[in-house]
Amino acid sequence: METLKLKSNFDDLSLGVAMLRPHDVKAKAIFQIVHGMAEHKERYYPFMEYLCAQGYICVIHDHRGHGESVKSEQDLGFMYDGGANALVDDVLSVQNWAREQCPGLPVYLFGHSMGSMVVRAFTRLYDDRISKLIVCGCPSDNKGKKAGILLANVIGTLKGWNKRSNMLNRLAFGKYGELFEDGNPLAWLSANKLNTLTYYKDPLCGFVFTANGFKNLFKIMELCYSKKGWKMSNPSLETLYISGGDDPCRISDKDFLKAVNFMKDRGYKKVSYHLYPGLRHEILLEDEPKVWSDVSDFINKQ
């Protein structure tokens, strides 16, 4: 695994980046991963190793305000001045660097959870730069997003943009922690108890966002569900939505299908989906190898 720091083209923030290249097989494509909220790139290393063995150059970065993409530990959950637009631009910065390292290869873009909103906001502007898109653990459109932005603005203005707000946390996550009988407030993340325990013990996971972070979480949702601004340069972009059938982020199967159909309604012709019964939010980290193999089948399909 090659790790490095890369400057964001948006504001020169130092981004933590990791790349894994195959050595025994010819490279087929660049597989770019965009992780979720309140986690970090290292959680995806096993998945990257799995895909790398099949010939994919895998690259991932820590979002601003996550992992190594912070100026200090106190900035976890703080996205600096660039906000939602910078989240999208950081994906472009990393992708441009990966293309320089590995010219001539197609790019497949994968985003989980908050990252699934970032990759759709990216696709809105740059769909001609990617050949396949995978939307994993996608949060359905939240009608409270405008209220969330307003509340974050009030808290940020009055108490400072670094203020961590349990009120905003409740608005974003509702009663997710009460939905399952596991006696574990993180049970909504995964039916895999080892995964939720590891997440709980990881200091780089599960932190409460700042007012700045929550404002931009809701802003990125606005961008990815906006009906305006889609360039539609690549209407034949192959897109796969995958989510757990018990993932509360989807709200309901009906809302999940609205998210899928949203891209179809923009004009994308090759949008498919798969719901995994019994799986929750972090489907890549459940005890279910079929998720990995389904992703592999999708990107290997000619």
> What percentage of the residues does DSSP assign to strands (E)?
15-25%
Kindly provide the name of the CATH class: Alpha Beta
CATH architecture: 3-Layer(aba) Sandwich
**Overall number of structural domains:** 1
How helix-rich are the residues, as a percent range? 25-40%
The helix count comes to: 9
Category from helices, strands and their pairing: alpha/beta
> What is the average per-residue confidence, as pLDDT, rounded to a whole number?
94
Strand order of the largest sheet: 1-2-4-3-5-6-7-8
Distance between the termini: 28 Å
CATH superfamily: Alpha/Beta hydrolase fold, catalytic domain
CATH fold name, please? Rossmann fold
**Spans of 5+ residues with little confidence (pLDDT < 50)?**
none
Q: Profile the largest sheet.
A: 8 strands, mixed
Structure report:
This protein has a single domain, classed as Rossmann fold. The protein is 37% helix and 17% strand. The two termini are 28 Å apart. Helix 2 (83-101) packs across helix 3 (114-126), helix 2 crosses helix 7 (211-224) and helix 3 packs across helix 7 (211-224). The chain has an eight-stranded mixed beta sheet with strand order 1-2-4-3-5-6-7-8, sandwiched between helices. It has 302 residues and is an alpha/beta fold. It is globular and about 55 Å long.
